[in-house]
Amino acid sequence: MKYYSALFLTLTMIFLSGCQLSNESPSAQPKDEQKELKPADMDDEDLPDMGAFQDEFTRGFLQSTEETRTGYYPFLSGTGAYKMDFPAEGDIVEEFYNIKDKSFEAIMISDGNEKANINHIITIEYYDHLTEVHKDSRIGQLLSQIGEDAQLTEVEKNHQTFYIAPFKSKEEASNLDIYGYGTFVLNNDGQGGVEIILTSYCENNCAELKESDDQKMYDWIMSLEFTKSSMERDQSEK
User: Which are the contacts of 180, defined by CB distance < 8 A and separation ≥ 6?
Assistant: First the structure.
């Protein structure tokens, strides 16, 4: 009889302990459980001390505090149509953000600060109706912005095609070196296209730094990937 009483008491204690744990606040739970929370749902003290997480508007787009690669974190667009890496010290300029349902979204990202030798500005525009038939006209519009003589390279990756071209210019008044990439990305598994212009503004030692910065920008652009949910939505609408 004593055995059953002890067993009942043990089970009761386990049950009560479970209830207590389930009622704890997220910050009191183990770190592994906290990782499941998105940054927008986490307490400020649990967020990384980095610009992207300290800006309330920006962290609403970030999906985790776990890096996708060194210095970058997972970003998901407001339409849910594409994802990409996001720089730790970047921020989304709220004043320039524009979204229309799931059909259109415009984003401007600033990466850098007053003390940085190189600052980046990236603008991204997503259109859900674009297909192969729109490719030439969209590329034409892109080249009109970055320079008609820019040389396009076509890259296939993850069921999408990147049409990417480097450009450069010189701002004499401020003595800045300006260079970057213009890109059009087409979804090969459904409708949808993205136009990207990523610009670097370099102040000093630009010749020495440009090669590594070019690679950084290229990798950032190439991290963009259309999501499965956007492809499934396209299929259901056909």
Answer: 146, 166, 167, 168, 197, 198, 199, 200, 217
Q: How far apart are CA 26 and CA 2, in angstroms?
A: 39
* Nearest to 72, CA basis, from 98, 122, 119, 111: 111
pLDDT tens digits, residue range 23-32? 444 444 455 5
3-state secondary structure of 24: coil
**Do the Cβ atoms of 66 and 86 come closer than 8 Å?**
no
Confirm whether pTM is higher than 0.70: yes
- Mind listing the pLDDT tens digit for each residue in 88-102? 999 999 999 999 999
Contact 39, 51 (CB under 8 A): no
- End-to-end distance of the chain based on CA atoms, in angstroms? 68
Position 58, amino acid: T
Spatial distance between the Cα atoms of 62 and 65, rounded to a whole number of angstroms = 8
